[in-house]
Automatic annotation (TrEMBL):
<keyword id="KW-0963">Cytoplasm</keyword>
<dbReference type="GO" id="GO:0005737">
    <property type="term" value="C:cytoplasm"/>
</dbReference>
<dbReference type="GO" id="GO:0008146">
    <property type="term" value="F:sulfotransferase activity"/>
</dbReference>
<dbReference type="InterPro" id="IPR000863">
    <property type="entry name" value="Sulfotransferase_dom"/>
</dbReference>
<feature type="domain" description="Sulfotransferase">
    <location>
        <begin position="40"/>
        <end position="290"/>
    </location>
</feature>
<dbReference type="InterPro" id="IPR027417">
    <property type="entry name" value="P-loop_NTPase"/>
</dbReference>
<protein>
    <recommendedName>
        <fullName>Sulfotransferase</fullName>
        <ecNumber>2.8.2.-</ecNumber>
    </recommendedName>
</protein>
<comment type="similarity">
    <text>Belongs to the sulfotransferase 1 family.</text>
</comment>
<dbReference type="Pfam" id="PF00685">
    <property type="entry name" value="Sulfotransfer_1"/>
</dbReference>
<keyword id="KW-0808">Transferase</keyword>
Amino acid sequence: LSSPKMEHSSRQELEVIHEIPLYRPFVEKWAQVESFQARPDDLLISTYPKSGTTWISEIVDMIYNNGDEEKCKRDAIFNRVPFMEMSCPGLLSGTEQLDTVPSHRVYTITHLPVQLLPVSFWEQDCKMIYLARNAKDVAVSYYHFYQMAKMHPDPGTWDEFLGKFMAGKVAYGSWYDHVKGWWEKKKAYRILYMFYEDMKKDPKREIEKVLQFLGKDLKEEVVNKILHHTSFQEMKKNPTANYEMMPTWAMDHSVSPFMRKGMSGDWKNYFTVAQNEIFDAHYKEQMKGSTFKCQMEI
């Protein structure tokens, strides 16, 4: 039998809030998000969906727990690093979760574009980590996520979904606006802007950047431990990181695992030559005038 939660959250059309498409339960609780009070020592992790959110969250949790992997298995990642705008019938919302955490609550994640972020984060000058991933791999990963996570509308065919992605008609809106918005914002705020492709190429160097940004100093062997624990292979089999603790009415891992391939350049297995040409022309147009650059493969 389907649960009322499932009925409520399954395959609903997206709603729009401040011109950004979002899940209906998120929009219903939007006032809580907008009025959320950040604290000066909060760390915000921001990404466009399917850009390595869980990976960077696990790295940060490992850093704050000094590489103690048992502590990092204390709970599912979505409880350890609450998702700020999350709202799901019958469960504590992200803001409610965060409000119950004492000071030094340390971190929260968001997929919100800069213009929708609660203003208190800017007022408190919080440290923020932004992780970007190339648009083509994001589109492919998002397509699979739409298929397995039932809070999304039906994605249709890959070609239909790609059209929606390019038009920004997917949850959280335009990838182009998202990465550019945060890219511009880093000029004025304490934002460490990172790239998924750099993390794939040299994860140790990127972890060291995070350590430096957070003012943390860990011994070499602890850094190596974090490196091992946060590798794709380790995280894919770790139930506290791979979203298998999420109820099946919300995510169906038999359709596609939440952690699918964790690679760079998988888009080549999906984009046709024609799709790639259309996408490249559209990308050039959308990113005109921006100094943002990312690698489509490594």
